What we know:
This protein is of the alpha/beta class. The chain has helices at residues 85-90, 111-115, 120-127, 132-146, 164-172, 176-192, 196-209, 221-225, 236-254, 259-267, 275-279, 294-301, 327-330, 332-335, 338-346, 356-360, 379-387, 404-407, 409-421; strands spanning 4-13, 17-27, 37-47, 64-68, 94-99, 157-161, 213-214, 217-218, 366-371, 392-397. Keywords: Hydrolase.
Amino acid sequence: MAARLVEKHCHNVPGKLRVTELFFDVPVDYQKPNDGRLRLFARSVTRWNNPIDSSTKEDTKLPWLVYLQGGPGFGCGPPQNYGFVEPALSKGYQILFLDQRGTGLSSTVTAGTLARQGDAIKQAEYLKKFRADSIVRDCEAIREILTQEYPADQRVWSIIGQSFGGFCAASYLSFSRTFQKVIERNEAYYAKFPEDVARVRLIMQHLEANRTPLPSGWLTPARFQQLGIMMGFHGGLDSLHDLVLRAWHDLEIFGEFTDPTLALIDGHGGMDKNIIYAVLHEAIYCQNESSSWTADRLRNEIPRFQINAGDSVSPIYFTGEMIFKDMFDSYTELSRIKDAAEILARTKEWNTLYNVDQLRNNKVPVYSATYIDDMYVHFDLASETAAKIGGLKHFITNTMYHDALRSKSGEVMRQLFSLRDDCID
Length: 425
């Protein structure tokens, strides 16, 4: 087997849940299995029962449901923190939460750990092994271990993928429009908070004139503009307004930002703690071509995203989840891998991630939730992808945003299981 189970510990948590912590060893490069190993971490969760009749045997070979976290670059939280756990367990699954390679406790990639690989060229080569194709191979290697005692016809599992996890799922089975959706969210924001047009411009003027340190780097005008990533979540417009209000109030009263405000702003960055998100964000889409800082090029072509453009009454638009080259200057941790990021942005030699013919002929049941107003995954692109996957059933709604699996877990799971369990007349 390509993977090896290294360690396993079980414990119970409130909610009648049985959580097992698992560590696996897998190859860094499946094409060169002797060239180094990674340590992967996962948690499984099942229903914990304490029957009156102790002789009652529990079914230990429940079907697996694997959760692939969004990102890239983010690990999983404890299973009890996810709203979809209860409905999934009720359907008879046991669930595996995998920290994808480089995230969480799975051989975490930071600027410090990456430096151990050597110079920027070696760092870039190492990071190339952290895309969806390698994550899929990790999943398969772990599946072989966890199902080795199952009957041959039951050694399969189901996958639930959120955002980037969904990209991994599509890979398993086998940007200009994104800016447009961000423009729509900006229009909704300023329609709700028109007073913030002047406030945001005042904040930007202050940041242009004053070098402002943060615990993780520097608060530049571009970095403040990047707080727009919040607009894609449920309640995101209000959360962004709260930060704008606080920052503007500080300038009005004190002429500078207070430490509590700067701490809040710094907490909404996160790039220094999840560098894979920044360094591989565009690379996760690449197949035989380079990204060449696509988001930078598109931002420069759209006047509404120019901080210095327009008259004094025009709103400055926030950006979304895009990654820009200047982030590798405004975040201390990212600045340490700036050269490796540049190499990856220029790289054209990427493996193929998706087999379109295989997806078209897919026989594995697929159930998808797509949100019309998703700011991170454009609805048209999601629909085009769904149309290429054979046998896919689609739940489409305009009442949810990108984080619905977390913020509206019960409704999402109910709709997906309805696609599986019910029929349309």
